[in-house]
Amino acid sequence: MRSTIIDINVNNLNHNLLQIEKFSNTAKIIPIIKANAYGHGLTEIAHNLSSPRIAMLGVAFAEEALLLRDSGEIRNILIIVPPEIEEIEELLNNDITFTLGRLELLPKINEIAKKLNKVAKIHIFINTGMNRDGITPEEMSINGDIFSKYNHINFEGICSHFATSEFSDKSFIINQFDNFNKVLTLSSNYHNQFKYIHIANSAAIINFPESIFNAVRPGIALYGLMPEKKFADEMNLKPILSLKSKVKKIQKLHKGDTAGYSFHFISNKDTQIAVIPIGYGDGYSCEFANNSECLINGIRFPLVGSICMDQILADIGNAHINVGDEVVLIGSQGLEEITVYDLAKRIDTIPYQITTSLLSRIPRIYRNGNV
Asked: Which pLDDT value is given to residue 338?
């Protein structure tokens, strides 16, 4: 196996799920495992998520749902990004639930389901103000009769998505919440009872708990992270991912020597460089060039020079480091730790991007899990 690995702590995954359940009252859980489970491994994370409160697994696209089915996943699956009409037949044949973002697709969906002698399970996606996907409250107000028009459609759920769930200023999230409630009132007037009502994402569970209906959609929280670290601390979440490698080679440099591409590092002293086999081809961003650190033997060392496609360089000075020593790029070693938040701050991005960028060519090891 390659010496660079992603180490996934399944015990922490299960701990985070329990914490989410604790903060979600009695709501059902729809774990969001899109984008390769935020970089943690789609099918492996799915197979290690187990709780009687899990109503279904949430993904973004049909391809992800079908991968889960191919892996043997038999639980309900919800596609949260409204799919294309060309995908509906395959979704129905694989018993996959999906969101609806355009009312004009209903006749065609009903027709496809009728042809297959099936009932399409749909969650209506309401555009409450994010203006990305969904049906507006105004559209719903003049089309309330949809609930009784289609014999081959089960309007199983209704949902929306918050744009500012981590903000301390609650004005916009309250406006979205009010818009959602207006649609719920309208739907009840047409005697439609949704089995699942969900709008709360990870941050909303802790920062806007009044938005918890009978289901919630935690994503980043499952992996021990949050848009703001304070929310992860408040929920006592534990990161589940470590990124590790090993020293491949020690290269001695003299003052004035260069290392890596394009003279991005010119040594100002006699030193040693540790060569580490990971690079931007693995999703370790080029923006970390001369802008990050690693841990070796519990000591922090700066990364220097370019981030190459397959290798990076650490300036280890005169430290006693050996080929084969463990290198930590995300995670803890000794008394030191490099967090996803640390890396995100260095390149002015969000925690989500750090983990989802890690590509599948890095082997993932699942500790204490079912895989």
From this structure: 99
Check residue 37 and give left, alpha or beta (phi > 0: left; psi -120 to 50: alpha). Answer: left
Catalytic residue among 149, 230, 261, 269: 261
Over 70: is that where the pLDDT of 191 sits? no
Q: What is the pLDDT of residues 92-138, one digit of tens each?
A: 999 999 999 999 999 999 999 999 999 999 999 999 999 999 999 99
Q: How many domains does the chain have?
A: 2
Beta strands 57-59 and 77-79: pairing type?
parallel
Which of 28, 34, 244, 246 does the annotation list as catalytic? 34
pLDDT digits (tens, 9 = 90+) for 145-156: 888 899 999 999
Does one domain contain both 248 and 281?
yes
323 vs 290: CA distance, rounded Å = 22
Strand partners, 154: 121
For 210-247, how does the pLDDT look when each residue is reduced to its tens digit (9 = 90+)?
999 999 999 999 999 999 999 999 999 999 999 999 99
Q: Please indicate whether residue 230 is annotated as part of the active site.
A: no
Comparing CA positions, the residue from 331, 328, 327, 351 lying closest to residue 339 is: 331
- Going from the C-alpha of 334 to that of each of 188, 263, 331, 342, the distances in angstroms are 57, 33, 10, 17
22 is catalytic: no
- The reply to whether 88 and 202 lie within a common domain is yes
Q: Among all chains, which residue has been given the structure tokens 């209704």? A: 158
Rounded Cα distance, 304 and 288, in Å: 9
